[in-house]
Structures are given as structure tokens and as C-alpha cells.
Specification:
12 strands, NAD, dTDP-glucose 4,6-dehydratase activity, Rossmann fold, 3-stranded mixed beta sheet, about 350 residues, alpha/beta, single chain, lyase
């Protein structure tokens, strides 16, 4: 039986991981540490048994040290991060504090409890990072691999790159048993409505503009969050200590294609379920029109990386990882979740603005 501390476990990917882990390993003890900032939501953990939520900051090294020691934590899965690129452009300080200083705080606490005062019990510090640390790809460039040089282009990706380097350093310098995963763009349940898929889905339901940066041809590799959680599980159980694994969805799509899929999906849902027109009367689909009429092209974001793509050969060959969903299936499931969970997302819309 493992004792897990999951940082940021009330956020989007973290909460999905908590749900996934409770089903996959019901005998383990799970503690969530989350500051419940704007994107953290305790309701994301509703319905879960044997999950303890501690409201606190990962920068509070004394608190983390106490939790690791008193609860005999042997595994940290570190999701807690500021992650929205637009917010990092307007307010980079929070990203450096949480992503760099916060990660270092966790590493210091782990080193003190597991190494300096260690009992010899096996431990693991798993750090969840992003493909954005690798920079931008040209259309014909090979996909990012674990050996791709870092070239972050936004304050967000720079802060994540810094945290990646700290995790690597604590393994090589002090012997902390770490692993790192760099993932592509996640989507799925519980995603705060500031990111493309939930934002555009909810905007289409409420008759709001769909603001597309530049020409809409920025390319991302889309990864359903449950596939990401399976990848992390494989790394925790079978990954080599000190290694980095890239986790992708194998779905490399331009943003405009994703927006078109959202519009088609919403229109099809209204055609299939007449009650949606009553629930969302401002949606173009409620009047039999196309959601695509809401598309609006806006000035491109500063430093907007043109293309990301993940080469997941390493995690496939070493750990047997294969994504279970293509984008069409994954988005259909995601849209169904958002249509069923209006009580979850409705209070968040103003916070996302």
C-alpha cells in the first residue's frame, strides 16, 4: 500500500488523477494538497472516499515537511502549477513563485524527510511538466523527444523549465528518486473554462464569441486527461528513476480544426436533444443556426508557439503506453460531460473572464 501526496489535486489534471488512482489502486492512502486558488475547486473531489484534502501552499516548506513525516508519505505526484500562458504574460511573478519556488519547496521537504532523516523506505517524487518547455516547431520539424533541447518562449514555459531542471538536479546531486513527465495539451472533465476546449464549448452554448488567435493554424498535440493519468501510472509503477517520459495523445491538430470540431459537436448535440434549446436559448444552435458563426479572429498572442508535437516512442517502448482515445472520441465524451455538469461550470464562468 502506497501513501500518496498529490499536489494541485483539486485542479483539472490533478483531480482527474485522484479519481483515476482511487479506482486503479483503492487500497492506497491519498492526500491532496491544494491552495484552492481560482482554478482549484474542492468540488472536483466530491464523491471520493478516503481522500483527505489539505488546503495549503506548496511554498510552505514546513507544512509539506510535516505532512510527509506525519502521514508517512512515500510518493509525491506534483501537479500544482500556474499553467495559463495568457496569465503568465500579464502576471509572470505568480508563475515563478508557484512553479519554481513551489517545486523547490517540495524538493527540499522531500529531501529532508526521505533522505536526511530517511528510514530507507522506497520513495518517488513524480513531477508533471509540459511540452511547452521545448519551444516551438516548424511544420516539418521532428516531434519533441526527451532529448530535445529546452527553448521556452513564455514566462509559463520558462517557469516549468526551471522546475524541471530543479527536479533533475535533486536526483543527480542528492539521490532523490524522481521521474518527470512532459505532456501535451490536455482536455477532459473538470478543466477550468479558461482553456480552449472548455472555453469555446461553453461560449458556443451561451452564444458568446469564439476568439481565435491569429490564423488559427497553431498546432497542438491533444491528449485526453485520462490517457495522461494512465501514462503517469505507468511511470510511477514501472518508470526508471531519474528518467523523463513524454506523454502525448498522438492527435496533432491545428486550433481551427479543434474549434470546428467543437462547433460540429455542439450543433449535433442540439439536433439530438431538443431540450438543450430550452437550457441554452442564446446558443445559435438553439435557433437551428451553426455555432461556427461565433468564430472571431483576434490578434495573435505574444510569443505564440506555432507547433507542438510529442514523440512518445520512449514511453511506448519501455512502458507499453498507448492512448486509448482519438480526438473525436475524446471530445465527444468531454462535451457530454460538460452538458451534464452545468451545475459544476456555471459558477466558474465569471471567474474565468
Amino acid at each position: 500500500m502506497a501513501n500518496l501526496l498529490i499536489t494541485g489535486g483539486a485542479g483539472f489534471i490533478g483531480a482527474n488523477f485522484v479519481h483515476y488512482w482511487r479506482k486503479a489502486s483503492p487500497g492506497d492512502r491519498v492526500m491532496v494538497l491544494d491552495a484552492l486558488t481560482y482554478a482549484g475547486n474542492a468540488a472536483n473531489l466530491d464523491g471520493l472516499e478516503a481522500v483527505e484534502l489539505v488546503v495549503g501552499d506548496i511554498c510552505d516548506t514546513a507544512l509539506v515537511t510535516k505532512l510527509l513525516s506525519e502521514r508517512q508519505i512515500d510518493t509525491i505526484v506534483h501537479f500544482a502549477a500556474e499553467s495559463h500562458v495568457d496569465r503568465s504574460i500579464t502576471g509572470p511573478d505568480a508563475f515563478v513563485t508557484t512553479n519554481v519556488v513551489g517545486t523547490h519547496s517540495l524538493l527540499k521537504a522531500a529531501k529532508e524527510v526521505w533522505l536526511d532523516k530517511g528510514t530507507g523506505r522506497p520513495h518517488r517524487f513524480h513531477h508533471v511538466s509540459t511540452d511547452e518547455v521545448y519551444g516551438s516547431l516548424a511544420p516539418d520539424d521532428p516531434a519533441f523527444s526527451e532529448t530535445t533541447s529546452y527553448a521556452p518562449n513564455s514566462p509559463y514555459s520558462a517557469s516549468k523549465a526551471g522546475s524541471d531542471h530543479l527536479v533533475r538536479a535533486y536526483h543527480h546531486t542528492f539521490g532523490l528518486e524522481t521521474t518527470t513527465s512532459n505532456c501535451s495539451n490536455n482536455y477532459g472533465p473538470f478543466q477550468f473554462p479558461e482553456k480552449l476546449i472548455p472555453l469555446f464549448t461553453l461560449n458556443a452554448l451561451n452564444g458568446r464569441h469564439l476568439p481565435i488567435y491569429g490564423d488559427g493554424m497553431n498546432v497542438r498535440d491533444w491528449l485526453h486527461v485520462e490517457d495522461h493519468c494512465r501514462g503517469i501510472e505507468l511511470i510511477l509503477k514501472n518508470g526508471r528513476v531519474g528518467e523523463t517520459y513524454n506523454v502525448g495523445g498522438g492527435q496533432e491538430l491545428p486550433n481551427i480544426r479543434v474549434v470546428e470540431e467543437i462547433c460540429r459537436g455542439v450543433d449535433a448535440a442540439f439536433a439530438h436533444d431538443p431540450d438543450l434549446a430550452r437550457r441554452f436559448p442564446n446558443a445559435p444552435a438553439a435557433q437551428g443556426r451553426s455555432s461556427s458563426e461565433l468564430k472571431t479572429y483576434v490578434e495573435d498572442r505574444k510569443g505564440h508557439d506555432r507547433r507542438y508535437a510529442i514523440d512518445e516512442t520512449k514511453i511506448r517502448s519501455e512502458l507499453g503506453y498507448v492512448p486509448a482515445r482519438d480526438f473525436t472520441q475524446g471530445f465527444a465524451e468531454t462535451l457530454a460531460w460538460y452538458l451534464a455538469e452545468e451545475n459544476w461550470w456555471a459558477p466558474l464562468l465569471n471567474r474565468a473572464a
